[in-house]
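In this section we walk through a basic example: taking a raw amino acid sequence and producing a predicted 3D structure, encoded as discrete structure tokens. The instruction is simple. Fold the sequence below.
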Amino acid sequence: MSSSELARRSERFNKPDADVSFKSSDGVLFALHRTNLATHAGGFPPPNTNVVSDIIDIPEHSETLELLLQFIYPPDVPELAGVPLAYAAEKYVVYIAIPWCRMHALHLLRTTIG
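The resulting token sequence is shown next.
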């Protein structure tokens, strides 16, 4: 049994017709579609092959990827969880997530300052 078969899989992002797979820093696999990534984000590294068994290691934790990918696979905008999501949104240029993270940060700043 290969290490990819032993890895945990994202329940939400385990698409049966996926053409690219990402593996988070804590070992969770995300089976995704290149078209969605290309349409809604500008910074994910493109894989060198069409084979699903090739897995791209992503340095972010699965919780951050789970939130970030909800912007790429809507129907719902996720409840924002803070700084790791904002950094990942900027890093991978997830167009719709960046302004949401900025608005969330401003809201937190305003409620903290008073």
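Looking at the output, two observations stand out. Confidence is low (pLDDT under 50) at residues 1-5, 47-52. Strands lie at 8-14, 20-23, 28-32, 55-57. In the next section we compare this with other chains.
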